[in-house]
Amino acid sequence: MAEPLHFEDFAVGRRFRCGTRRVDAEAIKAFARDYDPQPFHVDDAKAADSFFKGLAASGWHTAAMCMRLLVDGLPIAGGIISAGGTLEWKLPVRPGDTLGVEAEVLEARASRSRPEQGLVKLRISTRNQHGEDVQVFSPTVFVPRRASAGAGA
Prior knowledge:
Radius of gyration: 18 Å
CATH topology: Thiol Ester Dehydrase, Chain A
CATH architecture: Roll
Number of helices: 5
Order of helices and strands: EHHHHEEEEH
Helix content: 25-40%
CATH superfamily: Hotdog Thioesterase
Strand content: 25-35%
Shape: elongated
Largest sheet: 5 strands, antiparallel
Structural class: alpha+beta
C-alpha cells in the first residue's frame, strides 16, 4: 500500500489515478438483486425494452466500484471521509466496460475550527474505456494534516 496522503499532498490541480475495474453482466445482476432490483439491472430481455436499451449497472453499483478504486488508489490518512458533495450519473455502465477513476484537487483549505485537518474539494471522474465520464462525484473530504504542519498553523 502507498504512503498515506495528508492535506499537504493535495495541491490544487493535482490528479490521482486510481486504477481500473472491468464490469461483467453477472456482477451487475448480483449487485442489483441485492440492492437495486429493477428490471433493467437484472433481466436482459426487460433491459432491452427499457430506457437504457440494454443491461445497465445500477448507479449505486457504479458508486460502489468507484469507492473501491478510490480506497485502493487514494490512500488518505485516516480514510476517505466526506463532508458532502454532488453525485452525477452521466452514462450507463454496461457489461464489458472497464472503469477507471481519476481524482482532481479543485480546492484545498485548512480548517479554521480544527487545525489538525484540512478540507479538500475533489472532482472524482469515473470513466469507461472510451474516456467518457459515466459518473462524476464532487465531494469535500476531511484530510488530516501532518503533525508538524498542524502545530502553530
